[in-house]
Write a structure and sequence with these properties.
Layout: H1 2-37, H2 46-72, E1 75-77, E2 83-85
Antiparallel strand pairs: 1-2
Helix pairs in contact: 1-2
Length: 87
């Protein structure tokens, strides 16, 4: 089944990065609205946007690191002449 997933794997990772970036932006904007106007401006509980920012931010960093390591990592040639990715 990997023959199906391998060609689209960079696209899937890119979509996940975009999802985390948009989630971070939406959560940050609700936090900013809550900070500016209190609960009358935004009915989001403070714990929700704090935990949301931690979650979206950490996954964003992890997916960016995964993408960089997997698709832009240094390629090494092994003793048998095959390309081996640096892990």
């Amino acid at each position: 089944m990997s023959y199906v997933a391998t060609p689209i794997a960079p696209f899937i990772t890119t979509v996940q990065i975009l999802q985390m970036a948009v989630g971070s932006l939406v959560t940050f904007s609700s936090a900013a609205a809550h900070a500016a106007g209190g609960e009358q401006a935004c009915f989001v509980d403070a714990a929700n946007y704090k935990l949301g920012l931690a979650m979206y931010g950490s996954y964003l960093v992890l997916f960016i690191g995964l993408f960089g390591k997997k698709y832009f990592g240094r390629k090494l040639v092994g003793a048998d002449g095959l390309i081996v990715r640096n892990r």
